[in-house]
Amino acid sequence: MDPNRLTGKNILITGAAQGMGAAIGEHYAAQGANVCLGDVNVEGVKAVAGRINAARINGGNNSGKAIAVKLDVTSRADNAAAVEATSEAFGSLNVALLNAGINKPKFFMDIDEENWDTIMNVNAKGQLLGMQEAARQMIKQGPEAGPYKLINVGSIVSRTTFDDVIPYCCSKHATLALITGGAKALVEHNITVNGYGPGVVRTELWEQLDKDLVEIGKFEKEGQSMDSLAENMILMKRYSYPEDVVGTASFLASSESDYMTGQLVMIDGGMVMQ
Ligand SMILES: NC(=O)c1ccc[n+]([C@@H]2O[C@H](COP(=O)([O-])OP(=O)(O)OC[C@H]3O[C@@H](n4cnc5c(N)ncnc54)[C@H](O)[C@@H]3O)[C@@H](O)[C@H]2O)c1
Fold this sequence. Notes:
2 domains, alpha/beta
């Protein structure tokens, strides 16, 4: 593998203040990409961008630059502004990683409009708006500079369901439809659309989910949800960390995946096989 396989790529990442988005931002930059990190948590993305730029200045492996922007993915204006900031800072946009996502478990009969709307807005509508605004810029740049890449973050629940997180499952099924439908819609502009589906990844999202699952009475004590899934549902018998995901995210952003489109790749230790 070429350690500089992302050199020359300008990449926007949504939800990059922590968890997988932050880890991927650092990994992309270490492989030569310039990254624009967007999040509702502005201080968070500023800190990640600061780490990336400091590593460059101090002669670390990073050869890419980073900027941080305030981005609420549910706002079309914010998505458009983040795309503009990326192209202004780096000259163009080659890849957009639609990573921002949230979850809040509830049993089926307890799901209310607020729970449904909040999750679907961020995870499903947020990805659609991000794809559209990134594609608008890519179309403007012209097909010769492609293939451009949209990468949508799905989940194991893009292909299966758990009955205590149904709005989240619906939003990640929407991701799969955005990947396959988007691939068909955008191929004429030399834009590919792919994604990946993590399984159980130890991030702030899952730490919170773990607490929430105890609160609704699904599990008795914190930590049990991850251990129980690892033991009973993950073929490799362990949950994962952001480091388990960065390699596939990097492959999908690189020219090594140029002949792929419309695909959702699972990174789940063998939880869901298709
Ligand atoms: N952790 C897991 O086990 C797991 C498994 C499968 C899929 N995923 C998906 O991976 C992605 C990243 O998850 P993570 O575990 O790193 O989560 P995380 O909670 O650690 O990070 C998510 C980031 O998204 C940001 N965000 C939330 N709402 C936003 C909005 N409206 N606009 C912009 N940013 C927003 C948060 O501030 C946060 O920085 C999500 O799409 C998630 O659904 C996570």
